[in-house]
Amino acid sequence: MSSLLPGPNSLVPFVSVDDMMRLLIDIGTERMLCELADAIEEDFRRWELFDKTPRVAAHSEKGVIELMPTSDGEAYGFKYVNGHPQNTRSGRQTVTAFGVLADVETGYPLLLSEMTLLTALRTAATSAMVAKHLMPKNAHTMAMIGNGAQAEFQTLAFKAVCGIQRVQLFDIDRHATAKVARNLEGYGLEVISCQTAEEAVQGAEIITTCTADKQYATILSDNMVGAGVHINAIGGDCPGKTELHRDILTRSDIFVEYPEQTRIEGEIQQLDADHPVTEVWQVILGRAAGRTSDSQITLFDSVGFATEDFSALRYVRKQLKTRPFFTNIDLLADPDDPRDLFGMVARKEQKLVQGLV
């Protein structure tokens, strides 16, 4: 007699928000950021194996909803993510996300996970991993302009991966700055709350910009950026949204994830379509130069790319082999006979009528 319980191929591990928090706490925030940075760099070293395409975006006046797919030929991953800056007015997150990792051979999902927290972690880990290759030697101070949900993760990633010791915070919302300063207490950083963006960048070897408004903006003006700094620009991530004055771009050596996507969404949407940029994976593999002088301005025009989410999902799945922070959910139909999907429903109906389930 066939069972009407979930079959062996029905169950998929699901990582909830609570599970992700437990996983992060169990591993430790800084350790997890370092390990994610390593996983992301490992996949950048395999860059040529991946299917690559700009994310599929549905834009509206209020924000954007995006799908971000990729595959290395063995596993397939995608992320659903939104960006709605006005959500905070109703107590909602600006960015939410979930993702799936699947087996290419069968098409069956291997993992379903929340990715709101995981996106914050992987974005910060990517920023720090790239900065490791581009920042000035012995950099110890970062300006963090934009003190929203990403700021603490960015700061701790730069501490753990790049060794910064001091962060200078600024946001037009002073409550946001106070929030970040409070959350970073006890992490061994010197935290300075600044009154202006100009004050925040003074003495900083690394400048991170991370604001949310979906508009052309000048968070950094040209006169705020001196020689020799590394700029980590992560706020410009869709058409019509930038943070840096165009003149900063023309003075900088620009590094990107995937040019076809960054030219649409990143800071370089302000420049000609043939403006030279360097792909990060080429720097990591030693095929292109990164920082070449003390006076050089390096700019990581980061918009986030699907391989980074793939790396993060792959990392989480590996952690679940030894950590119980997931629930198996009955996601896939698994009839006794793969050709008899209707019969599975009919047998369920019969059991219901008989009161046996």
Give your account of this protein's structure.
The longest helix is centred in the middle third of the chain and has 19 residues. With 357 residues, the protein is of the alpha/beta class. It is built from 11 helices and 17 strands. Strands 9-8-7-10-12-16-14-15 form an 8-stranded parallel beta sheet. A 7-stranded mixed beta sheet has the order 2-3-4-5-6-1-17. Helix 2 crosses helix 3 and helix 2 packs across helix 10. The protein has 2 domains: 152 residues, 2-Layer Sandwich (ornithine cyclodeaminase, domain 1); 169 residues, Rossmann fold (3-Layer(aba) Sandwich). The two termini are 14 Å apart. The relative contact order is 0.18. The model has no long low-confidence stretch (mean pLDDT 94). Helix content is 33%, strand content 23%. A hairpin with a 5-residue loop joins strand 5 and strand 6. It comes from Sulfitobacter profundi. This is Ornithine cyclodeaminase.
